[in-house]
Write a structure and sequence with these properties.
Blueprint (H helix, E strand, L loop, with lengths): L4 E6 L13 E6 L2 E5 L5 H7 L9 E3 L5 H4 L2 H10 L6 E5 L3 H12 L5 H4 L2 E5 L5 E4 L2 E7 L9 E7 L2 E5 L8 H6 L4 E5 L13 H7 L8 E4 L3 H5 L14 E3 L1
Parallel strand pairs: 3-4, 4-5, 5-6, 10-11, 11-12
Antiparallel strand pairs: 1-2, 1-13, 2-3, 7-8, 8-9, 9-10
């Protein structure tokens, strides 16, 4: 049986601290392949990992900051140029299609990319589960910049649960996101500084015993976290890391 794997395409913060690419996780399962976020610089990492774009069935977007969805126009443009026929699903908070359309208009005016691809746009279901082909997503609002429509996600795929905090400060929603997750990917932008909309490691330690994950992976490190990385006692992401679930 083919195992389910998660490859870290990019795990950096908005400023690509430490030279890490923007957020993007490549999830491969027996019957579905997903991108979880696709930040502005992630497309380079997708190419570096040798990923065949046609293998991607869906792109899942946690929120509308450029380091989490700014790479989508580049992927769509290439697939349009290559005359992709396979359907591609884009799952996001509301307004996803409109925001991506506006990005494409600014970056590649006149390209008409959306008209050249077989795209299906879906939005998260409030207080419900979004069923897709061979996977499902439960989305939870989290504590980040409100107008980016921030969500944490639980993805059920091939009998595994992948939890993702998205960008967020501490919120009790993380307890549900992490519960029984085979992998819980949690942003941890800072070591001890308390900055609105982001987690710090000291806070995470205070609540760690409530996060009943099976495996934790910290991500989205800023310069402060990189500086204190030798004091971090939990696994953390780096570009190119591959995890089998």
């Amino acid at each position: 049986m083919i195992e389910t794997t998660v490859t870290i395409i990019g795990c950096g913060d908005a400023f690509a601290s430490g030279g890490q690419l923007h957020t993007c996780f490549y999830i491969q399962a027996p019957h579905a392949t997903l991108l979880l976020d696709c930040g502005a610089t992630a497309y380079y990492g997708i190419k570096k990992q040798g990923i065949n774009l046609n293998d991607i069935d869906a792109i899942v977007i946690s929120h509308f900051h450029g380091d989490h969805f700014g790479g989508v126009p580049f992927l769509l443009l290439e697939e349009a140029v290559r005359n992709r026929e396979k359907p591609l699903t884009i799952i996001s908070p509301p307004t996803g299609k409109d925001r991506i359309k506006k990005l494409l208009k600014q970056l590649y005016p006149g390209s008409e990319v959306l008209n050249k691809l077989n795209l299906l746009f879906k939005t998260y279901i409030p207080d419900g589960v979004l069923q897709a082909d061979h996977f499902e997503i439960t989305a939870f609002p989290v504590a980040h910049t409100p107008n980016t429509l921030p969500h944490g996600l639980r993805i059920g795929i091939a009998g595994k649960i992948i939890g993702f905090s998205g960008d967020t400060a501490w919120t009790p929603m993380l307890i549900e996101l992490a519960r029984d997750a085979d992998l819980f990917i949690c942003e941890c932008n800072y070591f001890q500084s308390e900055i609105n909309g982001h987690m710090n490691y000291k806070t995470l330690l205070n609540y760690d015993d409530q996060l009943l994950y099976k495996q934790l992976l910290l991500t989205h490190f800023g310069e402060e976290m990189i500086q204190y990385r030798d004091q971090v006692n939990h696994p953390y992401a780096y570009d190119g890391l591959k995890i089998a679930l």
